[in-house]
Design goal:
single chain, about 475 residues, alpha+beta, 5-stranded mixed sheet, 11 helices, binds adenosine-5'-diphosphate
Length: about 475
Amino acid sequence: MQTRINKIWDRYFQYYLENYAPPDINKESGLPFLRDMLFISVLLITIPIGILVYIPSILVCIVTNQVIIGIFDTLAVLVIILLYLLKNQSIIYKKIIYSATLYVLAIVILIYLGTKGPAPIILLCNSVMITLFESRKAGLYATGINSVIYLSILALLPVDFEVMAFFREYNFITWIGVSLNLIAFNAIVVLAVSSLVDKMNKSFLEEKKLQLLLEKERNDLLVAKQKAEQSDRLKSAFLANMSHEIRTPMNGILGFSALLSETEVDSEKRQNYIQIIEKSSERLLNIINEIVDISKLESGLVDVNLRPTCINEQLRFVHSLLKPDADEKGLRLSYTYSLNDNEATVNTDVEKLYAILSNLVKNAIKYTDHGSIDFGYVLKQNPVAEDKTDPTLVEFYVSDTGIGIPTNRQEAIFERFIQADIADLQARQGVGLGLAIAKSYVKMLGGTIWVDSIITKGSTFYFTIPFRAD
Ligand code: ADP
């Protein structure tokens, strides 16, 4: 039953809001919104109850010959119906007209029926409603208006108007007592109601704050959970990949060592086995070095040792070191530089520069099946140089015609354990640490690293270091 009435009420309220809502009604949740909704509820309840009460009231007026009260009663009901139907009036205007109508009605009833009629209760309810649907200040003003009404009656008592027959029972002193009591109780109720509203509003705001906090914490937790899950997934992939990466060369070393120990191996085969063992050991050493490097970086044990370094020499060194690997895959490996040897001295950490460059060239060879790899450097103007006396950068590049990297992975590959295509893990050697180490080194040298790549066409990795010639 209760829910049925609630449903009917909700539908009625919604209907009114959709068809007659004042244009400036508050739509944001919070106290102003609740106050406006309360006013609408009061207006909506007044219509059926007002009409219901109007019929017996008007009958009583006819029987007791109270024509004026009857007229004002009728006017009040008409004004409130009009107020209900008005579409383009602001909410404050509706609130004022509603309260003023009740004031006029209460004054007329007070004059004709004295305190025995419903006037004091209408005045009290009006001030409480104003407190609820407007503010404490407005409620206190309403109490002030009530006081003025009661005290004006006090001023009119000596005049002895015929209409104010009910007041003949009161002398001046009694009416002072009665009206002061009415005013005092009025003020007490308004203050009590407004402080209740204040407290409820405070706890509402507090709850909202807590809700926002909770929501934020929930989101943070969700992000942390996703990160933990991702890191878990990456670590599992890393471990799986790593055991494969270690097992393959290990098997190579053990297997070919066993073959070597067989007596009837001819010298050509022996040479071949030794080469395989050497390559496998190199691969193993490479993995161990990468793991040692990343753990040193993570525990902050890596220092930068700047010293004058000929960058051309580094290019030549990397080229000579990795040319056999490129030749083995049928790839052209070339390098270009734009400065003469005597101008190409940069104050940098040679070990790290070598590590970055060789890692990028090794990757280029690893991820290219046909074509060529070119690497080198150009001098660039540093757009955000703080030191205006040294505005140049050396921008290194390593360009290949390899498999390329999908756009959505081009940032991630610089993170630890991340490979551009996890599914492709077994296809190429590596554990996904090389670029993370290179990125940390580039940062330590004061530069940045990035990649431009088109899938199946090739990639160009770039990194910069400051050009310090001294
Ligand atoms: P890995 O040991 O797996 O090579 P890296 O950190 O060096 O680890 O590289 C991360 C991933 O970036 C690689 O797994 C590969 O998917 C991608 N990548 C790196 N260099 C290239 C390249 N030149 N061409 C295509 N993909 C590359």
